[in-house]
Amino acid sequence: MAKIRKSEILRRYNGAQKILLEETSERRWAANSIQKAFESFSFFEHYDIFLSHAYSDARIVMQIRNMLIEKGYSVYVDWIEDEQLDRGKVTEHTATVLRNRMNNCSSLIYLTSDSAEKSVWMPWELGYMDARTGRVSVAPIIDNDGEEFEGREYLGLYPYLDLTADSFYIHKGANSWVTLGDWMQGKTPK
Which entry of 7, 137, 152, 180 is 20 to 30 Å from 159 by CA? Predict the structure, then answer.
């Protein structure tokens, strides 16, 4: 099974930065730099992709988001679009905002990593979008080629996102795949 290599995503992210900042400074910089976009954001804007992730994977999330945007997709990331949310706690308000956002998204990509196991929101987002659209894929973020996600076997129920060269594909098994664009149009891996 192909996966998305953490080292490759971070290499691309670092290569795209003019100045590398320490991780804490980087998060602060990212939050400040998107404040203008946040202020002009429409709550009812439609997105192609809801990017479900653990916040501790912020650099990976930003790079994958940027790569998807470069391919022409609109991508929702909660801490970019809804910075005011408290993601550390499960609250009715946060659930309502996320539910409304998912209702305005065509699909969900679930960025699973070691950090994702600790997320209080990711499994809920996955289940909600699976029930709502059925258009869900898993993007395994790995450190090593042999790494598996033991204990989260339910993720194997979903097709997975693969990054090969500069193209995204959706796979369901080794010889069953479609381009991300075709998948977004409703095609399934064959």
Answer: 7
